[in-house]
Write a structure and sequence with these properties.
Blueprint (H helix, E strand, L loop, with lengths): L15 H7 L4 H7 L11 E2 L6 E10 L5 H7 L6 E7 L6 E3 L1 H9 L5 E7 L2 H6 L4 E6 L11 E2 L3 E3 L2 E3 L4 E5 L2 E5 L4 H23 L4 H4 L3 H6 L7
Parallel strand pairs: 2-3, 3-5, 4-5, 5-6
Antiparallel strand pairs: 1-6, 2-7, 2-10, 8-9, 10-11
Helix pairs in contact: 1-6, 2-6
EC number: 4.1.1.112, 4.1.3.17
Enzyme class: lyase
Protein name: Putative 4-hydroxy-4-methyl-2-oxoglutarate aldolase
């Protein structure tokens, strides 16, 4: 996180089939399946409705107001990678737009998560390139100061290492450590199967008060019903 001026070309990525097995599960489910960990701060939002992506992290450490390292990172991308960018200090300038999206998509990127600004939102939506950002900001950037690529970094309060799996949708962004990928996928699958049964019971009119056995604890806590 303090390694400036380096590009790590070789990173360990989990098997593609393991990433694809995780992909069907939403951010909320994955967060719960990991014991309610891994979430980025909720200010990271999709720049257009229904944007979603899952991929292996290629990390980018940017300098404020400078997007040079995003161009450097493009060379390191492989199909299925997701760019995760953070800045050495807070900055909401428009680091990324349509032209960079075109470049990184051609290299196989499935999206971008950035603790900074993004612009060209209409064009990004038209090309359906998912971006999750701290801000939308037309202010451009320069190319003057080096940062780093494929180093561990903190993005919106979440630790992201190169090769970790990042999922993003309308509920937010979650980071799944690469070594926990299969474990989290199994837990997410079990959680969704359990929720399917609960959904059927709710649809039939059963109350959570009864399904979860809440009445006695509520009474013990002093809850009274008054007619």
């Amino acid at each position: 996180m303090h390694d400036i001026g380096v590009v790590h070309r070789s990173i360990d990525r989990p098997p593609r089939e393991d990433v694809e097995a995780l992909a069907p599960y939403g951010v909320s489910t994955l967060h719960e399946a990991m014991g309610r960990t891994g979430l980025m701060r909720p200010y990271i939002r999709p720049v257009y409705p229904r944007a979603a992506c899952v991929g292996t992290a290629v990390t980018v450490l940017l300098q404020p107001g400078d997007n040079w390292m995003l161009h450097v990172a493009a060379e390191q991308l492989r199909p299925g990678d997701l760019l995760v960018a953070a800045c050495t200090t807070e900055c909401e300038d428009g680091f990324f737009g349509e032209l960079l999206a075109t470049s990184v998509r051609a290299r196989g990127a499935v999206g971008l998560v950035i603790d900074g600004g993004c612009r060209d939102v209409d064009a990004l939506e038209a090309m359906d390139f998912p971006v999750f950002s701290r801000a939308v900001n037309a202010k451009g950037t320069v190319k003057a100061t080096v940062g780093s690529v494929n180093v561990p970094l903190v993005c919106a309060n979440a630790l992201v290492r190169p090769g970790d799996v990042v999922a993003a949708d309308s509920d937010g962004v979650v980071v799944v450590p690469a070594e926990r990928l299969r474990e989290v996928t199994d837990a997410a699958r079990a959680r969704e199967e359990n929720e399917a049964g609960k959904r059927a019971r709710f649809a039939a009119g059963e109350l959570g008060l009864d399904m979860y056995g809440m009445r006695e604890p509520l009474a013990a806590a002093g809850l009274r019903y008054v007619d």
